[in-house]
Amino acid sequence: MSDKPAARFSAEDEAHMRAALALARRGLGHVWPNPAVGCVLVKKGRVLGRGWTQPGGRPHAETEALRRAGEAARGATAYVTLEPCCHWGKTPPCVDAFIAAGVARVVVALRDPDPRVNGQGLARLAQNGIAVDEGLLADLAAEVNAGFALRIAEGRPLVTLKLATSLDGRIATHAGESRWITGEPARRLGHALRARHDAVMVGSGTVLTDDPELTARIPGTVPPIEGRPGPVRIIADGRLRTPLTSRLVATARQHPTWLVTIEGADATRRRAFEECGCEVLAVPRGEDGMPDLPAALRALGQRGLTRIMVEGGSHLAAGLLRADLADRLAWFHAPLVIGGDGRPAAQAFGVEKLVQGRRFVRRAVQAAGADLLVSYARDRAPAA
């Protein structure tokens, strides 16, 4: 992935777009179904206003930056990480706001893949005499909104599979002991990752074993958004065996909690979860008797989710890998060896030849105390 600006852009252009991208990342996990966008307004080298998509998806980054700049925006250059919208939704079109404010130039990192926009916003700006430059740090902008783009292209959210294992890929001993394989710094980093996703997903086995909360427990990372206090908690539970006394169900009215089950699941049990404040989504049964994962992700995409982090367990991980639905890996490695009788990060999913394995490209390595976080993206290159 290249993060070099095109030759037609100056070093100043690049610096302001990098600032806009940093602003855009502030919205990750808080703005779905909208994209996370950043905007910086500059005139004669002076920053007049900055904005990013606000919690819940509005106001948009552009209108926030214009509000802060006020009348000084006339004649300014706007650096925007995604093409400004040109259609009416819950807010007026951002291109109209730029035109009304008298902005002279708009530098856009990435064209909006939404068919309601997709170049039309840039065209309207140009038609109204505004200079438009496109493509500055486009690869970086594409990564920020990879989930938004995937939801438009395939109807499903981006899936990050988060694993915390020993060096030999074990998540627990043969007796089931797993707390704590990684140390406190890695766990804090894991909570920060949760906060940057729209939802966190586990299988019912993880709920039965660990009784997790799945909240992002870092002060200041989750803003107090009405109706959206942190990531949605999702349980993949084909048999609705999650205990009604579990912490996820008990706190469903405070933290949105969704159960994904199979069509025809026990109606009485389903009503019990709904009475506790859970939302129950029914999808077709997969070949393994569990919820069909492609159908489940499409159902979650229809509800607006763009980024999901899957935290367990090994059966759910195997199902996602088998279906080639793991787009990213966030793999925490602890300096520990457990041995072959330990529980694997992913159960068997039918790989007999190496060519059938799922390949990933390493993106980053980050120290977390004694542990390491290695980040991967799915390798879309054809196998040799």
Give a summary of the structure in a few sentences.
It is built from twelve helices and 16 strands. The chain is of the alpha/beta class.
Your description of this structure?
The chain has twelve helices and 16 strands. By secondary structure, the protein is of the alpha/beta class. The strands form three sheets. It has a nine-stranded mixed β-sheet, with helices on both faces. Helix 3 packs parallel to helix 4.
**Shape, principal axes of CA atoms:** globular
What structural category do the secondary elements indicate?
alpha/beta
Major beta sheet, strand line-up: 11-10-9-8-12-6-13-16-15
Radius of gyration: 22 Å
Kindly state the number of beta strands. Answer: 16
Task: State the order of secondary-structure elements, H for helix, E for strand.
Answer: HEEHEHEHEHHEEHEHEHEHEHEHEEEE
Biggest β-sheet strands, sense, barrel: 9 strands, mixed
Helicity, in percent?
25-40%
Bin the strand percentage. 15-25%
On the 0 to 100 scale, the average pLDDT is: 90
- Number of helical elements: 12
Cα end-to-end separation: 21 Å
Instruction: State the low-pLDDT regions, or none.
Output: 221-227
Write the layout of secondary structure elements.
Layout: H1 11-25, E1 38-43, E2 46-52, H2 61-69, E3 77-80, H3 94-101, E4 105-108, H4 120-127, E5 131-134, H5 138-144, H6 146-154, E6 158-165, E7 170-172, H7 184-195, E8 199-203, H8 204-210, E9 232-236, H9 247-250, E10 257-262, H10 267-275, E11 279-283, H11 293-302, E12 307-312, H12 314-322, E13 328-333, E14 343-344, E15 360-368, E16 371-378
Helix pairs in contact: 3-4
